Amino acid sequence: MVAGPLVEATEAPAVGALHGELLRQWGSSEVWRLSFGLRSVIAKRGTDGQADEARAYERFVVPLGLPAPRLIHEHRDGDAGVMILADVGRVTLEQEPSADGFAAAAELLATIRRQPVDGASEFPAERVKELADRIGRIEFDLAPLAEALAALHRDAPTAVVHGDFVPKNLVTDGTRWTAIDWPGAYLAPHLSDLYTLIRDAVALGHDRGPIVARYLGATGADPALVDRQLLVGGGCFYLIALRFIVEEGLRTIPESKNWIDGLLTELEDVVAQLS
């Protein structure tokens, strides 16, 4: 079901003539670059939470014109989703984690957040308790996070959240940056995407200041509001990450069990800052 689109996109004489390069492989997805001569595409097969990325394209990427790889073809195969995507570059921010790259990623995020959307937030304050119940390992009070999230729904616009805005999912062709891997996209007023970008930058020794400044300059947003969106977004990110590990990651990524304690500590720290 994907042979025809692969051959057409790469102008290969047959699928067997394509060169395959495995880019990424997790328990729930694998990603390949398939090329013939100078033409290449990205083939992605996902299961579990990675299976419905095409739906995110249908809901957000295509109608809003978001900076994502062009979807060439998609096919559902039982519990798995297969996508053929345009190849938007060979270098990720993870591979070349420069300060300029992180600042450019903040501006890319501003482009995503500026797009007006129809529909209500998909992360209401009530979801804090729901996720905490599903995780079942949180022994501190999450009320400050729920209250701050409720306030954000009054004070900040709802926009697209990529859901995994981290260096491995930010790709450049040397001229422009593109966000890849969209299955976790949803609508919300918080800034978990900017939070995770800054979290990774700081872990690499970069200063958060220029990253936030680039985002503020590109959006014209109120700095105090962005600070609140960042903290709330961090709390929401940790809840989603912990829920994933408990319900899926322990099965598909066994080493993820080692991430739980650290994520709980970071979540507690964010909640304390909101208190």
Describe how the helices and strands are arranged:
Elements: H1 3-10, E1 19-26, E2 29-36, E3 39-46, H2 53-64, E4 71-77, E5 80-86, E6 91-92, H3 99-113, H4 126-135, H5 143-155, E7 159-161, E8 170-172, E9 177-179, E10 186-188, H6 192-203, H7 208-219, H8 223-252, H9 260-274
Antiparallel strand pairs: 1-2, 2-3, 3-5, 4-5, 6-8, 7-10, 8-9
Helix pairs in contact: 3-6, 3-7, 4-8, 5-8, 5-9, 6-8, 8-9
What would you say this structure looks like, in words?
The protein has helices at residues 3-10, 53-64, 99-113, 126-135, 143-155, 192-203, 208-219, 223-252, 260-274; strands spanning 19-26, 29-36, 39-46, 71-77, 80-86, 91-92, 159-161, 170-172, 177-179, 186-188. The chain has a 5-stranded antiparallel beta sheet with strand order 1-2-3-5-4, with helices on both faces. A 3-stranded antiparallel beta sheet has the order 6-8-9, with helices on one face. It contains 9 helices and 10 strands. It folds into 2 domains: 3-86, Phosphorylase Kinase, domain 1 (2-Layer Sandwich); 91-274, Aminoglycoside 3'-phosphotransferase, Chain: A, domain 2, CATH 3.90.1200.10. A hairpin with a 2-residue loop joins strand 1 (19-26) and strand 2 (29-36). With 275 residues, it is an alpha+beta fold. The mean pLDDT is 96. The protein is 46% helix and 19% strand.
